[in-house]
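User: structure tokens for this one?
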Amino acid sequence: MDKVRVAVIGAGSISESHLNSYQNNPEAEIVAICDLNGERAKAAAQKYGAQKTYTDYHELLADPEVDAVSICTWNNQHAEISIAAAKAGKHVLVEKPLCRTVEEALQIQEAAHAGGKVFQVGYVRRFDPNVAVLQSFMESGEIGELYYAKASLLRRVGNPGGWFADKDRSGGGPLIDIGVHAIDLCWYMMGKPKVKSVSGNVYHKLGNRSHVKNYSFYKAADYDASKNTVEDMANALIRFENGASLLVDVSFSLHAKQDEAAIKLFGTNGGFEIDPALVIVTEKNDTILNIEPQVDHKGFNFAAAFQNEINHFIENIKNGTEPIATVDDGVEMMKILNGIYESSEKGVEIQL
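Assistant:
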């Protein structure tokens, strides 16, 4: 097989990470860009050397010179485009979250399996080099059985606004936007145990706090301070059938002293921290050791993780192998996320 001919659908900010990584992969060729904004599509095409641009993804999917697509659109378009791409015989890499609802996820799953092509979900945290380091320790038995994980991704004032703040387009706020990363990474490191139940709380208390001055934060291109229909923060306890559990809290807006990123997992022989920096905790000679591995980046290496993710996608296409972030994983994650929202709405624990 020659180079994999790739198109990117959606030329917003996250597409840059896909495009840069494809450009750095010698087995990939960027051939087309699609965006509702034709000028933005043309600008991206010019920057990355794509010969074709589209404003209608149906036309792009009908192009026989496109082998694979990255879907980088609003969340509410993930399902329809993923299904259409699978039916068109394209290999698919869809940004997280897979979609907005379990119903959409099951429809995508059916189309992906029927299509028979590579279908990968953009759980980029799985591809961080530090995760590979930790997996080597786990495989050698240094950590033992992981039975508890705790994750916090808290922003004091960090509602990006725009489509991120529009539940119809996003499917939710910090839980489905950044919480999906924390939950998926912990679940993946724990061996993807079957989920038993979720108990969650979702809060709409502070809004986007656009009145706050002298404190800068990322704003989406279509930021509008008057529009916000997503939650400020969410927390949840996730129980697994093997007895393990995961405690998570995430926020766009919270009266906290500072932003916080902390992901910790605990096992029978040792434990480790992934965020904010890589640390391994173990015992030797009846003594507790806090180990700081010598790595290029102590924290999450965004660029390297994206490059690894894209390389993995291209490699699977070339070799006909299955990705480590499958559509089936995407379905399970949507069950967890939707279960947390349902638990909060009904005030009860949800059995999955």
